[in-house]
Amino acid sequence: MLAWSAGYTRRAVASPPEALAHAPLEWDTPLYRMAVAQFDQAVPVAGIPEDIAERLRFPERSLIVSVPVRLDDGQRVVFPGYRVQHSSILGPTKGGVRYDSEVSLGECAALAMWMTWKCALLRLPYGGAKGGVRCDARSLSPTELERLTRRFTSELLPVIGPQEDIPAPDMATNEQTMAWMMDTYSMQRGYAVPEIVTGKPISIGGSVFRHEATGAGVVMVIASACTRLGWPVEEQRCVVQGFGNVGSIAAAELHELGATIVAVSDVSGGIHSEDGLDVPALQAYVREHGSLEGCDAGRRISNEELLELDCDILVLAAREDQITGENAPRLRARMVVEGANGPTSLEADAILDTRGIPVLPDILTNAGGVTVSYFEWVQDLGRLFWTRDEIRAKLAEKLSDAFDRVWDLAAERETSLRTAALVGGIREVSNALEARGIFP
Ligand code: GLU
């Protein structure tokens, strides 16, 4: 259990009541502990002062709201909503908003901490945040989702802003969600504020490349790793878990580079074909039917079977907690790629490390999304827009710089790529925190 820092309890004057010193912190959940445990593994390698490390184990600010929504049939329901801001040391906090039945304060806190390291590793002037509403988005109609989004945005007004905290899409949210958030915020200000969110439609100041950015970035990182490992991309047999915004674009980009996509999956289960799947045809099927349900492009398999298929590259683009101590020994991939945030548990990381299977970590691999979000925000603030090719080139440059730093540090310190990526991010934040000091 996380406890208030030893230093805090030691000082007689500041000593909190017993109950406070020992009460579990509200965000202290298994996922948050995983984020802190990863951080603790990286701290000795990062070589940062312990008092700085202690401050970074806690999110700066957490907001819990309840979001009442009138359903289409007139019924009123209330959903819990959250926004956690982990660190504002480097700039405004940044991170997605997800609509999912597992959203909790602890999940948002873990994801916010990962956003801090991700932004810092990419040298973006942001800290990390994450938020969401606990709901089953697929059971809500577009009009219900609009009312939920507008009310949730109103509840967040005291803590968000273009210089404070900038939301973006995440699981089950998209350009339309961001348009409603931008409109709700702008209505309160009395003028258009496109820079309040990123991942908006292009018509209201969105970036021409934001939609594809996360998936395209995943493939840029895979290509860099393949170059270092001497694996020709076009010879790789790939499995992609998750066929949403990240997985479907990553699969399409890999397919375009000549790699073979032997299996993909979504909530409806997996599809497998040793001869390779026609990814654009699958994307067209999903556009028409909403999911891969009923698609007969290959053999139908379960999500568990998909993860254990014999392949070169396994891309995890679904959600957290997919590769665990239980299934990691059975994985037959030669490389694991984290398109989602937190898909590999600590136990799985250790097993894959012993088995010599490299894991391209989330905070590097899926950073294409927030990097293009940064470009979108800068463009909105300056009211000056770049072309698709310019944005793609700037993204490639940012990701390749971060990849080289991570790969070289991992080789130099003989650590995992995850620890190296965390060290890269943690050092940026620690240097800034040391320079700024603790207020007052
Ligand atoms: N939700 C995405 C992530 O986890 C993007 C966040 C953003 O663009 O701010 O990185």
Description of the structure:
The protein is of the alpha/beta class. It contains 16 helices and twelve strands. The strands form two sheets. Strands 9-8-7-6-10-11-12 form a seven-stranded mixed sheet. The protein has a five-stranded mixed sheet with strand order 1-2-4-3-5. A hairpin with a 5-residue loop joins strand 1 and strand 2. Helix 3 runs parallel beside helix 5, helix 5 packs across helix 16 and helix 15 crosses helix 16. The protein is globular, with a radius of gyration of 21 Å. The two termini are about 30 Å apart. About 50% of the residues are buried. Bound molecules: glutamic acid. Glutamic acid (GLU) binds next to strand 3 and helix 14.
State the main characteristics.
5-stranded mixed sheet; 7-stranded mixed sheet; binds glutamic acid; alpha/beta; Rossmann fold; 440 residues; single chain; 16 helices
Q: Could you give the order of strands across the largest sheet?
A: 9-8-7-6-10-11-12
CATH class division of the domain at 211-365: Alpha Beta
Compute the average pLDDT.
95
Order of helices and strands: HHHHEEEHEHEHHEHEEHEHEEHEHHHH
Could you estimate the helical fraction of the residues in percent?
A: 40-55%
Strand percentage lies at 15-25%
**Helix/strand structural class:** alpha/beta
**Poorly predicted regions:** 6-17
How many individual β-strands?
A: 12
- Return Rg in Å: 21 Å
Distance between the termini: 28 Å
Query: Which kinds of small molecule does this entry bind, naming each only once?
Result: glutamic acid
What's the shape?
globular
CATH homologous superfamily classification of the domain at 211-365? NAD(P)-binding Rossmann-like Domain
Report the major sheet. Answer: 7 strands, mixed
